[in-house]
Amino acid sequence: MDFNPFRSGLSVSREAQSFVFFIFGVTGDLTRKKIMPALFSLYAKGHLNRFKIVGFARRPWTQEFFRNEVQGMLQKPELLSYGKETLEAFLKTLEYIQSPFEDPAGYRKIDSVCEGFLNRIYYLSTPPDAYGTIIEHLGAQGLAKEKRGHTRIVVEKPFGRDLSTARKLNDQLSQYFREDQIYRIDHYLGKETVQNLILLRFGNGIFEPVWNHRYIHHIQITVAEKIGVEGRGNYYETAGALRDMVQNHMFQLLCLTTMEPPNDLHPDTIRTEKVKILKSLRPISFRETSQYTVRGQYGGGYMDGKPVPAYREEPGVAPDSRTETFVALKLFLDTWRWSGVPIYLRTGKRLARRTSEIAVRFKAPPLELFPRAWAYSGRNALIIRIQPNEGISLIMNAKIPGYTLNMRPVNMDFSYGSAFGETPPEAYERLLLDALSGDSTLYTRRDEIEASWTFITRILKGWEEDPSPIPQYVPGGSGPEEAKNLLEPSTRWRKL
């Protein structure tokens, strides 16, 4: 493979081959907020040369109206800085197909739009219930076949609701597309710090020797959001925190943190190591869900001095909803490297602040030379910040200046912004360029998806059989108090 995100970066000249990029559901929020700004940024930076971007949606837009809409999507200061001429040239690459997803006539226009281009990408930026319809029509019209160029399909999350629906979607895709044509996107894998996990672990001699159960006490992975469901109550009622965050984003972080060293940097080699981790997760039986999982819902209250509604008061949410907005898990990996090391995951909405991090807490020295009271606060830790302020901190102990022997934890900090003097590319920029270049390293494979859903579905079924009330938690805090019960006696959740 010519390019690999662990061998080369966006600073290296990478130019996608000529292509037509189809966006199904182009009128939606994802296109407006992420996809179109990322494509324009890649074009402005010189990574895209000869191409078309074709919107496919049911709204009766003209081509001129579509281009005006996209121009509105790109009115961000960092994008406007590329200049008017660059924007106008980009807008000329846009075309629009107006068609319901169920109408075969719309798909019959695709080949004519692709005249003069060998390569095509289909991006499914639609609600998941439309995936099957689009895939079937692409297949029935012969649009999945590769003739002289490549044909790829990018599928957004959520990729199924449980194991059976994920398998069904995989079966639909594999009926018409080969696995190497399918790109299942998880935007967390496009974040610079997430990619750096591979380099941090396997490119530095100081970490890998202690990256095991002999030296690591536990691992905490946190993805906290300050916002609520923000008008997406209808969607969130069908998802919940476990499906929305843990099955995809957090399990990817878990895999990259704990996987074995790959033999090489080929995409399938790395993904095979991730699958091994997912399959080594100790299963949680139906009866054990209350012992190893905690869920909660945010109640009403105040955030930053302003009143906020409880989850059950949000539009589109049932007044007796049992959908979790917070989940914490205690996991174990049954492997030689991680035997006995607890791994804690937590994610939730309406928490104290927005943060995503991986905290690797090391064991205390074997001989306690210092007062026992210092044992927890003085324990070493490696904190990998994914957002905001991407970077890494190493917490270690140092003597406080003075005449007595007192110590306190101090930080050694690395920040991407200050170390390299430039802002990392947006996650969607990296991921889209990889898909255009044919690099699937940062995309998930079928067996990854199904292995993660195998584990998650057991928890979902256990919750269905548990009639216990869902704990409520105060907005602006760290989640329900019950989450503390998951932790070992000498362990605390990191402060949000």
Fold and architecture overview:
With 496 residues, this protein is of the alpha/beta class. It has two domains: 19-156, 3-Layer(aba) Sandwich (Rossmann fold), CATH 3.40.50.720; 189-486, Dihydrodipicolinate Reductase, domain 2, CATH 3.30.360. The protein contains 16 helices and 17 strands. The strands form three sheets. It has a nine-stranded mixed sheet with strand order 16-15-14-13-7-12-11-8-17. The chain has a six-stranded parallel sheet with strand order 3-2-1-4-5-6. The longest helix has 19 residues, at 446-464. The chain starts with 18 loop residues before the first strand and ends in a 23-residue tail after the last strand. The model is unreliable at 8-13 (pLDDT under 50).
Itemize the secondary structure elements and their pairings.
Layout: E1 19-24, H1 29-44, E2 51-57, H2 63-73, H3 77-80, H4 84-91, E3 94-98, H5 104-107, H6 110-113, E4 120-124, H7 131-140, E5 151-155, H8 163-176, E6 182-184, H9 192-202, E7 216-224, H10 233-237, H11 241-258, H12 267-280, H13 289-292, E8 293-298, E9 301-303, E10 306-308, E11 326-331, E12 343-348, E13 355-362, E14 381-387, E15 391-399, E16 407-415, H14 416-420, H15 427-437, H16 446-464, E17 472-473
Parallel strand pairs: 1-2, 1-4, 2-3, 4-5, 5-6, 7-12, 8-17
Antiparallel strand pairs: 7-13, 8-11, 9-10, 11-12, 13-14, 14-15, 15-16
Helix pairs in contact: 1-15, 7-8, 8-16, 11-12, 11-16, 12-16
